Amino acid sequence: MPVTKLDDKGRILLPGSLRKAEKLKEGDEFAVDSLGDGVFILKKIDLRSLLEEAIEKAKGIDHEKVERESEEESNRLAEERFEFSPRQ
Question: 17: Cβ–Cβ under 8 A, 6 or more apart, which residues?
Fold first, then answer.
């Protein structure tokens, strides 16, 4: 297992053998998380693709339906909490 160090700017250099094996290049982006106890997860992500996918999914949303359903749920919660029925 290769060993690397954290530099004074908080950067960690991934060993060349890993970069080559994973076909990593300058500018690649990673999601980073800590599992605690000094264990970290790095996952290469393609932020542009994720955003484009989210935009495409959002285009298919029926905003009027979401608004209606939100209002219905809001009315249901108000009835439950305040024991009244909104005007129909």
Answer: 2
| pTM > 0.85 | no
Give the containing element (helix H, strand E) for 42: strand 39-45
Q: Is the torsion defined by CA of 29, 33, 37, 39 positive or negative?
A: negative
- The answer to whether 33 touches 47, Cβ cutoff 8 Å, is no
Distance CA 59, CA 49 (A): 15
Averaged pLDDT, groups of 10, the chain, 88 residues long:
92 93 94 95 89 87 91 90 70
Name, in order, each residue with C-beta under 8 angstroms of 4's C-beta and a sequence gap of 6 or more.
Answer: 12, 13, 14, 15
The half-sphere exposure of 74 on its side-chain side, counting CA atoms within 13 A, is 7
Looking up tokens 């809001």 gives: 74
